[in-house]
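so my prof wants the structure for this chain in the tokens format not the other one, which i didnt know existed until like an hour ago. anyway here's the sequence
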Amino acid sequence: MPITLAPITRRNYITGSLVLGGSAWIKSYALAKQPTFDPNRVALLADTHVSDDPKRSYPGTKWPGSPVKEDEHEWVNMADSLAQSVREIIALKPRPANLIINGDCALSRGTEAEYKEFLRLIEPIRKAGIKVHITIGNHDTREKLWKLLPFLKKDQMGIHADVIELPYANIFLLDSGKKGILGEAQLDWLAQQLDKHTDRPVLVFAHFNPLPNPGVRPIRGMRDGEALLKVLARRKHARAYFYGHTHEWQNSKHEEHLHIIGQPAVSYYFGKGQAHGWIDMKLNETSADLKLRCIDPKHPQDSDRLKISLKG
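here's what i got, hopefully its the right format
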């Protein structure tokens, strides 16, 4: 089962207002123009790396073997980056009905304090009526996150994999865990679900890159990445695999029909001057249209576009 955070609904607001005696507020709320939601629009985030300290910044360009000089590292405030992304997503018209955070919500190893801050930062998304789906990354500790989500039932705790059925595509969320391993049971489940859901094209999400990173920082691929790609390559309705982990906006192809998409980090990046931000994805009958939204709107890659064919 997935980690899914449902919207904080209008009923919650009205209940709260009744407790506070806000009858006039209820009337004005009911009369106010309500936002519209697009089930074919999905906000894509990855690697938020939230710290327990909202003032903390981190030098993503500082890693073993980095070519960046010691006095030239670039620091990013993770909380500010996520808060900006949240504001931009809420401002969209129409709003996306769904938002996916593709792993590494936390900065260190997924402490309870980090997740409290993470949940605080994404709460406006839920109050805005958008459903949040979370995959697990190598910096996450699922048990600590579960502890802060009392609505999760016991049978929802374990491997977090599921299918989100949208009008023009099915989205598969996979659990590559802390070590980049799907495992034989999950790969079998994936193959079975792909064969079951042939009515629409499929977009697959998991945190780890399936193959060694071709980008700026050498990062090995998931341990069973080749096996994953074999499952996807055999099924022409599998149109793309999205991953985080490398903190780099990338696009390649594996077989003619299958895009491999590296999502940029919302937080810090590994290469000097690289883009960080989130992706606005719009689905239609023939394509998934991706638009990069950089934290720095003046970045040369801001508004980069990528079209993934959903036909053929």
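also thought this was worth mentioning. The longest strand covers residues 37-45.
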